[in-house]
Amino acid sequence: MSVGQIIQRTIPWLVAGLLIGSFIRLGLWQLNRAEQKEAIAAAIEVGQQGAPIRMQRYSQVDDYTPVRLDGQFDERAILLDNQIVESMRGVHVYMPFLPADGGPAVLVNRGWRQLGVTQQINLEALRTPVEVSGLMRSPPRVGMRLGEVNLISTQWPQSLPYLDMTAIETALGLPLAEQILLLTDEADDGLLRDWQLKTMPPAKHLAYALQWFTMAGAVFILALVVHFSSRRRRLRQSQE
Q1: Count of alpha carbons within 13 Å of 3, Cβ hemisphere only?
Q2: What's the CA gap between 57 and 168, in Å, rounded?
Q3: 8: number of Cβ within 10 Å
Q4: Residue 65, domain member (yes or no)
Q5: Which residues 6+ apart lie within 8 Å of 98 measured at CB?
């Protein structure tokens, strides 16, 4: 067998191997994402049912741990734009909360509101000492950063395309905690507080994983069919 024939027979298997390996890796990634989403959904459910930990100042806890903070709001609002709820575009309203015993301010997600809806938040009430309850979590991860965040320290509220903690901290002139708080208190402020997992559900990740593994299996079967078909053709040619 010549070198050319060896290469000719090897290349299809190399291509098939690369495709199969890529499809399997994608399938495993989807399985991993499904597992992560299931863990997050379970943590949110447990956190919403658990007794909150009382804090006078911020201290780091596991994500979705229920906490109760004493202190008062800083009325400067940050609006996280392009937040979709039931096909309606809106914003998440964030405000810094100053713990009673000092330490870094905690950025609180007060909830969602639809764009174009006039809503007034009682700032006088926010300035008085209060206690807030919610779920502590890491700031949402940013996928693609489209442009830089530029905040003006004298203009509030301000809209952001994504949550840039460093930019917010600089504009506020306040040290911020490493985590944010998802407010769970009931309040007559017109803001929607529904902290269930809104991204792609685990079942969809599992469906995508099945698709990738099916494609890997299809490529393997196709490679076998091509291999044995070529082998039979060569045998017939050698017998002629």
Answers
A1: 0
A2: 20
A3: 12
A4: yes
A5: 71, 72, 73, 74, 105, 174
Specify burial of residue 141 (Cβ count, 10 A radius: 0-12, 13-18, 19+). exposed
Tokens at 41, concatenated: 């959904």
Residues spanned by the domain of 161: 53-183
Over residues 163-205, the pLDDT tens digits come to 888 888 888 888 998 888 988 877 767 777 877 766 667 888 8
**DSSP alpha helices (H): ranges in the chain?**
3-49, 123-127, 165-172, 202-239
Is 234 domain-assigned? Answer: no
Q: What is the value of pTM for the model shown?
A: 0.68
**19/219 Cα distance (integer angstroms):** 7
Question: Does residue 2 have a pLDDT over 60?
Answer: no
Q: What's the one-letter identity of residue 114? A: Q
Tokens coding 67: 């906490």
How many helices and strands in the chain, by DSSP H and E? 4, 8
Question: What CA–CA distance (Å, rounded) separates 183 from 177?
Answer: 15
Q: Which is it for strands 88-99 and 78-85: parallel, antiparallel or unpaired?
A: antiparallel
Q: Answer yes or no: is 127 within a domain.
A: yes
What is the count of structural domains for the chain? 1
